[in-house]
Design goal:
The complex is a heterodimer of chains A (371) and B (175). In chain A, 65% of the residues lie in helices and 6% in strands. Chain A is built from 14 helices and 6 strands. Chain A has one domain. The two termini of chain A are 42 Å apart. The longest helix of chain A is centred in the N-terminal third of the chain and has 36 residues. With 175 residues, chain B is an all-alpha fold. Among the domains of chain B are: 78 residues, Four Helix Bundle (Hemerythrin (Met), subunit A); 42 residues. Chain B is built from 6 helices and no strands. The radius of gyration of chain B is 22 Å and the shape is extended. The chains are: A mainly alpha (371), B mainly alpha (175).
Chain lengths: 371, 175
Amino acid sequence: MTVEIIASIVKSVLMIVIGLNLSVFLLYFERKGSALIQDRVGANRAGITGLGKKLGLPNLGIINTLVFDPIKMFTKEDFVPDGADKFLHTLAPFLALFPVMITFVVIPFGDTISIAGHQIDLQAANLNAAVLYLLATIGIGVYGIALAGWSSNNRWSLLGGIRATAQMISYELAMGLALIAVITTYGTLDLQEIVRGQGGVYFGWLPRWGLFTQPLAFIIFMTAGVAESKRVPFDLPESESELILGYFTEYSGGKQAVFMLTDFAEQALVAMLVTTFFLGGWQMPWLYRDGFHLPGGAFIAMPALAISIAGILAFLIKVLALCVFLGLVRWTLPRFRYDQLMRLGWKMLVPLGLINLLITAFLVVAVGSAS
Amino acid sequence: MALWLFVFLAVISLVSALGVIVQRNPVHCLLALVLTILALAVLFIALDATVVGFLQIIVYAGAIMVLFLFVIWLLNLQAETGPTGSLALKFFGTIASAALVAELWSFLLRPHLKVKYVGESASYGTLGALSQKLFTDYLIAFEATSILLLAAIVGAVALARRAPGQRDSRQGSLP
């Protein structure tokens, strides 16, 4: 019993740490990766003791983006504007961050692993209604942003808050429709079971990932996910050229850092969710419980522990690759107009999701009655 | 459900429900209502009605309350200052609430409510069990409700829709 309790504490902390670290990686990508994409130099100050220079290494600006920037933010004056609702103004950043952080715990990051005779499921919280839990926490996430906009007593903030709220509840719908099609395919709300359902291959070589089983749902979910995390091209709520900084215009110091962290954590969360639903989670292509079954009949046996660890690594690599992909999207596409955003959500993604759901339901019933 | 959990959630939901009616700022009232809804949802989940609990959060806290927030913003409601309502209103309000309490009291004392909870199988609140009931025993009621909702959606779209060629008078004032 105690082993289980310790294991779940370790897993929960691990998952939140992974989420935070991915956010840090995204912050670095925001500074240096964007410079790479736009052919700029980017962050290149404050190396440690000139050591890198002596060795002739390029200064990658890791120290000043990841150490000095956060120190600067958290030591700045914490400012509450005149006429603002002080209580809600302080509460809002935490209301925004909290739902994202508690969502990380339901994501399975590996198959079972056996340590000292105990079978441990590599998922911090195994809920049998995990998909509903996801939708619930995502729905609650709206409040932090809406209240930040309202409580700041600033027109730009309020407009940013209204835009963010409308955008998030519009794209939640498309996201939910994509997820319903996935649930119909795998017949379960349990994320671990959904990942297990993505094991195996089509035609002897193509991994049975959600991407190939539900391609339309993948596109809808990915688009809605980017919109949900309010990144370019969907960053209307904070579009600098119109609204200064949108809903967190009136925030400074640590509270603003919390809002930035929320954005990055949301991006990491979207990457994890897309991995779980559509890229096979911890499934490695052709890897089964006993080893690799390569297409063509070759077989490489592997010990069980190595397979468990390979699963965790596969999950992390997929998530990281998706994070980079989301970063590339962010620094490549221009921003939508607000009416284009709404048209895309309601007139394209929602009908597409409904059609996809109809086709999926038809196929599931047809296949079910044929077998 | 453990007693301490019930007491904890009951206190949260009662205090936040009081907060809905005693606060003067409409946004604060709304947040208190959200807290009440969340506490009730956790109560549902603790009673093994997992799906109902999560749907409560998704639909009420995640969507309907956000629409309430929009209404508050669009009508630009401010915090009320000073006493509201006439003396007669307060008088009849007191009588009506006293009548409601009396009615609830007499209802709760009815013998069939004193039956002890006999406990169904722990899976009665899962999505599978719920859908099984909805699509067999309560199919007609379920479909009738969906038609009702569909009619409401069509009605809302018809009301909000502009006639073709008609210019939107609100243009330029949208966020």
